[in-house]
Predict the 3D structure of the following.
Amino acid sequence: MQELINKIISEVGLSSEQATKTVYTVMDFVKTKLPPGLSGNIESMFSGAKGEAHEASYTEKATEFAGATKDKLEDMAEIAKDKLGDVAEQAEDFAKDALGKLKGMFGGDK
């Protein structure tokens, strides 16, 4: 994390205190945008923790999250498809019924 703070100090011109606050603010913001399973690893990522185990862990968690999200979206799409089918059928029945009633009001055949 100190490497990032130093980079902000040198490139942006902030004081050490301002750069530190900036890094922690960004880190906290990023945590709020990630699923709980991934947000806990943000501090180690910002602190510069490296290694194949961490990289694999991030990749594995991201892959699991993407798979779970895909499954949920497919389920939601199927539910929406079923519901829209029901709504379309109900709308068609309503239109036929309304047409029949209008024809009946004006002396036409049903």
